[in-house]
TrEMBL record:
This is Cytochrome P450. Belongs to the cytochrome P450 family. Its cofactor is heme. It comes from Streptomyces tremellae. The keyword Cell membrane does not apply.
Length: 448
């Protein structure tokens, strides 16, 4: 069991913000099935800071649900520490990945990873991302109702493999796809939520054994890419993340990052980067299908060569249905949040869907109204789909490039229409996914 879980203080109602009395299993199921509805019910009852008592946490998961506490949790790094707090994800992404690295090493690792993800560098990928989107578009334009999320997952995995590894060989890309798909399948990832003894490798048929085998196949492929790139003659001319990292200064003076560090870092990038982006793409097309007036206005705006409304649409989708449910920290010492006690080592979550639906910040919070993003910027920390502070997502520019490219290309070819009722959100691990994959039907524009 990871350190953060071992250190976590047990539940004690006097030491934590208030919580519902329902048993842990009931709270877990309610959160998974209706993360936004259940969170809002608790916020109405207890105010902007409350505890959730859900698996796999044994104490209370302290939740911050308004702009003031969201900001405190994300930016007060002395009180709320990141890295260890991502203990839940460590067995998947690797304890040495940026996501799981606590300070002070975190800043050093982040400095290494930031340059390849800088906005200007990511902009150089626009044409190649456009090519990948156009190549995959026919699979979406079937004429029938299709769930966008699985389609987008295939696309965003291809993009991340291209951007991170420069992978173009179709055979190796297919091997990656098979390995990653099997590893992130929900029945496999569910292992992360099992009690520690059941997560162990107890033979090939045990859930833990299967998890470790599938993880090993993903990491083997990544190890192969690292080894090949170390000796590639064209390494210095390449612009993929792996080549840039190999050319960068790393752990020691004059040396680049070592293989073990690279392996965790690259695994983290692949896993952090593709499902989140696919989920945002799915929500955006699904919301457009269910809001035809916005959709038609957007199509006109794009036809006129503007991307102003496009950016506003993507922001509104990120507000209403943020792909990542929360950013996690742990309390560095006994402290308080919103007037409630928080014990040392407790897990503390900045819960984005709640701040994003706060009526004091966002009038008519449930309405899909992209034009609200056309004026002034929102209040700081009112809109944080990519987290904030020193740990803000490094993939923001890439994720936005992918989402905007998909929406632009889809709307050039077709208009999304509903293929069933508007879908509610479910919580899958830390991702807020559309319950049926974000189904839409695409009507070709020539026939429109
Ligand atoms: C729409 C898509 C995405 C969303 C919604 C998203 C969201 C987030 C959030 C909420 C965090 C936590 C921030 C915090 O703790 O304050 C995060 C961290 C991170 N994300 Fe993303 N992300 C997305 C795409 C990507 C992509 C494309 C990549 C890279 C390929 C990526 C790599 C990372 C990494 C490495 C971290 C850890 C940063 C750190 O701890 O310093 N993400 N992301």
């Amino acid at each position: 069991m990871s350190d953060a879980f071992t250190r976590e203080p047990p539940w004690d109602p006097r030491r934590f913000p208030p919580a519902a009395r329902a048993p842990r299993t009931v709270q877990t199921v309610r959160l998974l099935l209706d993360p936004q509805g259940y969170g809002r019910a608790l916020r109405r009852r207890f105010g902007p800071v409350f505890s959730l008592r859900t698996y796999p946490y044994r104490g209370g998961l302290v939740c911050a649900a308004d702009v003031a506490t969201n900001r405190e949790v994300l930016t007060d790094h002395e009180r709320f520490t990141g890295g260890d707090a991502a203990a839940l994800l460590a067995p998947a992404v690797g304890a040495g990945s940026l996501i799981c690295t606590p300070p002070p090493a975190h800043l050093r690792h982040r400095r290494l990873l930031l340059p390849p993800f800088h906005g200007a560098r990511i902009a150089c990928w626009a044409e190649r991302v456009g090519d990948l989107v156009r190549a995959r578009l026919p699979a979406l334009l079937t004429g029938g109702g299709v769930p966008v999320r699985p389609w987008a997952q295939r696309l965003t995995l291809d993009v991340v493999l291209r951007v991170v590894f420069g992978l173009e060989d179709p055979v190796r890309a297919a091997a990656f796809r098979r390995a990653v798909d099997a590893f992130v399948a929900s029945d496999n990832v569910a292992v992360l939520f099992l009690p520690a003894p059941l997560r162990r490798d107890l033979g090939p048929l045990s859930p833990g054994g299967r998890f470790h085998r599938l993880r090993a196949s993903v990491r083997e492929l990544i190890r192969g890419e690292i080894a090949a790139r170390r000796v590639a003659p064209d390494r210095d001319e390449r612009d993929d993340v792996l080549s840039l990292l190999l050319g960068a200064g790393g752990d020691g003076p004059g040396s680049g990052p070592g293989d073990a560090h690279l392996l965790d870092e690259l695994t983290g990038l692949v896993l952090a980067g593709y499902e989140t982006t696919a989920t945002t793409i799915a929500w955006t097309l699904h919301l457009l299908a269910h809001h035809p007036a916005v959709r038609d206005q957007l199509a006109d705006d794009l036809d006129a060569g503007s991307d102003r409304l496009l950016k506003a649409v993507v922001r509104e989708s990120e507000r209403l249905r943020p792909a990542v449910h929360n950013a996690m920290r742990t309390a560095a010492h006994d402290t308080e949040l919103g007037g409630h006690p928080v014990p040392r080592h407790a897990f503390v979550a900045a819960v984005f869907p709640l701040t994003h639906l706060d009526a004091d910040l966002w009038p008519e919070p449930d309405a899909f109204r992209p034009e609200r993003h056309l004026g002034a910027d929102p209040a700081p920390y009112a809109l944080t789909p990519f987290g904030g502070g020193l740990r803000r997502c490094i993939g923001t520019a890439l994720a936005r490039l992918e989402t905007e490219t998909v929406v632009r290309e889809v709307l050039a070819a077709a208009l999304p229409e509903p293929a069933g009722p508007q879908e509610s959100a479910r919580l899958m691990s830390v991702t807020l996914v559309p319950a049926r994959g974000g189904r839409v039907r695409l009507r070709p524009r020539r026939a429109a």
